[in-house]
Amino acid sequence: MFSGIMSVLALLFSIASFAYVNYDRRVKLLLRPRKGDWCVLDRATNDRETIFRGIIEAYNHSSRPNAIRGYRFWIDNNGVHEDLESEMAAIGEGNNPSLPDEQETSELFNVTPLPIPAYTGVEVRLYAIVKGVHTLPGNHLPITVEIEDIHGKWYTVEVKASRTQRLISGRNASS
User: Fold this and answer.
1) In the chain, where the domains are located
2) Rounded Cα distance, 169 and 175, in Å
3) What are phi and psi of 19, to 5 degrees?
4) Which of 11, 60, 64, 119 is 20 to 30 A away from residue 81, measured at CA?
5) Spelled out in words, what is the top-level CATH class assigned to the domain 28-174?
């Protein structure tokens, strides 16, 4: 009798452990906008485009490593879905002439593949081009960011990009 109860309990624990392990191995990314003004709109070289730059956080809530393999950006322009232009970009800042030993620094945006180890998070640097002129409700532009992982699953987060001082002064100077 005792061995029969122990066998049934062992079977139940095995089934519960198997179910938990399989549940934990599901792909689960969580995207969050970083707190503060980490998403900005900046003036492009021409007056017909605006540059969106930002940082969001991507957390892997799975026991499996994951990676980001694609980005999509879009805005709702008065009820019209408008895709933004984006690709992997390296933005470099020249070194300071007064400091000859200083190296040129560059930042990578829209990096693919961007590996995310299990149970960790990474900062994701975003870059896109907003074509045309847009009104900014509440002094920010809501931009929807979609990220594709290596398993083909899409994740979405909406960020609020605010205007930089250069954008404000550039718009006022041209008026």
Assistant:
1) 28-174
2) 10
3) -65, -40
4) 60
5) mainly beta
| Amino acid occupying residue 151 | H
Cα atoms in the Cβ-side hemisphere of radius 13 Å centred on 174: 9
**How many CB atoms are located within 10 Å of the residue 124 CB?**
22
Residue type, 81: H
What are the start-end ranges of the E strands in the chain?
29-33, 39-43, 49-60, 66-77, 80-83, 89-93, 105-109, 114-116, 121-131, 140-149, 154-163
pLDDT tens by residue, the chain, 175 residues: 788 899 999 999 999 888 877 776 678 899 999 988 899 998 888 878 889 999 999 999 988 899 999 999 999 887 888 999 998 988 876 555 665 566 667 889 999 999 999 999 999 999 999 988 777 777 889 999 999 999 999 999 999 999 876 555 554 443 3
Q: Are 70 and 112 in contact (CB under 8 A)?
A: yes
Distances (CA, A) of 82 to 56, 70, 77, 129: 21, 18, 6, 11
